[in-house]
Design goal:
7 helices; 170 residues; mainly alpha; two-stranded antiparallel sheet
Length: 170
């Protein structure tokens, strides 16, 4: 299996960005949203694809857990969203499909997959849909940030250039 060095470098940069900015939060009502991982999921899914997106989500979750700044719930939440976002963009080539897939993947499916993690591994008694509302709020914020960034890149012409540069072989 041959790796694209450019994709590995961008993956490392996105992982570092997600870890470094993981404490950034947006207050919404009574809760706080931590949108950076979701923004990174969308950027990775669109520019790098589903495999790299999942790897970035896993590495970010692992590093945050090792540093004591994350929880085990980050694994299913972020990885499912990254996978679906990358697959949707690869299959359709449409940014709206990538955005919707991140929201559905993290906000609904990933949140529901947190139930067994919370119940079995963390010993918490929670309902199946307990994490859906907070995950949806967070992923909506992160996806909106990514959509704004990608929109700016598209209008400036940098989007196509970056896609070609990341995809180019050494």
């Amino acid at each position: 299996m041959k790796f694209n060095v450019k994709k590995l470098v961008v993956s490392g940069m996105l992982t570092a960005l997600a870890v470094a900015l993981s404490t950034f939060s947006v207050p919404i009502g009574a809760s706080k949203c931590f949108p950076i991982q979701h923004m990174v999921n969308v950027m990775a899914g669109v520019f790098l694809g589903p495999v790299y997106g999942v790897a970035i989500a896993f590495c970010t979750s692992l590093i945050r857990n090792l540093m004591g700044t994350g929880s085990l719930l980050a694994f299913p939440g972020s990885m499912v969203g990254a996978l679906l976002c990358g697959l949707a963009y690869r299959w359709t080539g449409k940014l709206t499909a990538a955005y919707a897939s991140e929201i559905i993947g993290t906000g609904i499916i990933g949140a529901m997959l947190c139930y067994p993690v919370a119940a079995i591994l963390m010993g918490k008694e929670v309902a199946l849909f307990f994490y859906v509302a907070p995950f949806l709020m967070s992923t909506l914020c992160g996806t909106a940030i990514a959509a704004i960034l990608i929109g700016v890149l598209c209008r400036s012409g940098a989007f196509g250039y970056l896609k070609r540069q990341v995809a180019a072989k050494e």
